[in-house]
Specification:
alpha/beta; six-stranded mixed beta sheet; 9 strands
């Protein structure tokens, strides 16, 4: 990350955490120690900054990788901002709105940027969604999020997922099987 920042002469001023899984926040603390900046996260996932195993299966592959790389001590960065649902704030001249989107984790959040881009984390991928079977995840919450939060977004919004290629809301509305009524109307967990 620091190499890319240097290569492109960038000056990061904030970190937007879409959810507290390790692959999305492992570098937050070391990065904020090197470059002081604010970290934005939901209250529901904030505890994961210090306890990432709180949303992972105990004894699973993530825990094994952590132990192998000596990553057992986590601390919260010094400047953490807890997000509010549908709050709008400015960073570097960009208008950012946080939209709570539980399902992948209890505290998952998506961000719209200038009503043109959507940072979707693991709520929405091109052709898919994030898993809901890990601790704090919920399939029922994900279906509700997809129905009430994602499908209400404008078609022209460019989607930047946490993994995989970008897409648009219009494309996902038409092609994503998880945004269709047969999936959204399922009952249960």
């Amino acid at each position: 990350i620091l190499e890319k920042i240097s290569d492109h002469n960038l000056k990061p001023i904030a970190i937007l955490v879409t959810h507290g899984h390790l692959d999305h926040m492992f570098s937050v603390l070391p990065l904020t120690k090197t470059i002081p900046m604010r970290t934005f996260i939901t209250k529901a996932d904030r505890f994961l900054l210090e306890n990432p195993m709180g949303a992972l299966d105990s004894g699973g592959i993530s825990e094994q990788i952590l132990k192998a790389f000596g990553g057992s001590k986590f601390k919260e960065p010094s400047d953490v901002i807890e997000l509010d649902d549908f709050s709008t704030f400015q960073i570097a001249g960009l208008s950012i709105t946080s939209i709570f989107a539980p399902g992948h984790t209890k505290g998952s959040v998506i961000f719209t940027i200038d009503n043109q881009q959507l940072i979707s984390g693991e709520v929405l991928f091109a052709g898919g969604i994030g898993r809901t079977d890990l601790p704090t995840g919920s399939a029922a919450d994900m279906r509700k999020t997809l129905r009430e939060r994602v499908l209400t977004l404008p078609d022209g919004l460019n989607v930047l997922p946490g993994h995989g290629g970008q897409t648009t809301i219009a494309i996902e509305r038409m092609r994503n099987p998880y945004l269709q009524d047969d999936f959204l109307d399922q009952k249960g967990r």
